[in-house]
Amino acid sequence: MPSESDLSAEFDVSRVTVRKALEVLREDGLVDSRQGFGWFVAGETVRQPLARLATIEEQMRDSGAAPERRVLEFAFEKAPKDVATSLGTSQVLRVRRVNLADGEPFAIVTVWCSAELGQNLSRADVERSPFYELLDIPLAGATQTIGADAATTDEAELLKVPVGSPVLRCLRTTSSVEGKTVLFSRHVFPAHRTEFVVDLPFVDQSIAPSGLRLVE
Predict the structure, then answer these.
(1) What is the pTM of this model?
(2) 3-state class of 152 per DSSP?
(3) Exposed (0-12), middle (13-18) or buried (19+): which is 189, by Cβ within 10 Å?
(4) What is the spatial distance between Cα 20 and Cα 31, in angstroms, rounded to a whole number?
(5) Structural domains of the chain, with CATH
C-alpha cells in the first residue's frame, strides 16, 4: 500500500487521521503492517507443517488456496561446488521458479538434480508439477534447515516486498530410500506471508525448541 505520508497527501488529511483509519481496517482484518514492509492488504498466511515430507501445493489445496508456479530459469549446467558435493555429480539440471498463492508470490525456489535424473524433464513438466511427482524414485525423506535473512534486490522484486525485508531461507536435501541425495533445493519465503509449524511430541522435559542450534 502507499505510505502514510502518500495517503495523507492524496486525501488531504493529517497522518494521524490516516493512521487511525488504517488501525480500524487492521481491526477488521483487511490490512496489516510489519516492520520493513509498511502497510499491506492482509491475506492468508501460507503454513507448512514440518512433520512430514509433502509439497506446499498439496497443503495449499487442502486449505482452499490456488497454487501456481512460474519457471524463471531452466538449464542443464555445471553444478556449484556445494550442489556437486551433495548430489555427487558435476552436471545438473537447475530450475528456478516463483511459487504463488491465489496469484501472490510467496516463495522463490531453486532446485537442482543430476543431469541424468532430469534428462527427460521439460520446462513445461516442472512448471506443471513438483519434482516429487515427476521423479520415478521412492523417496525416504528430507533434511531442511531454516534461518532468517533479508531480501536482496532481486528477491524483493520477485516477492513484491521492500529490499531488506525479512525472509526465511530454507536449504533442503531430499534423499531416496537408498540413502542417496537426489534433490538439492534453496527456498526464500517472505516472513510476513509464511510460517512453519512443527509438531513436538512429548519425549523429555526440555525448554529448548526442537532442532534449534546456534550458528557459528
Answers:
(1) 0.72
(2) coil
(3) buried
(4) 12
(5) 4-38 (no CATH), 46-197 (3.40.1410.10)
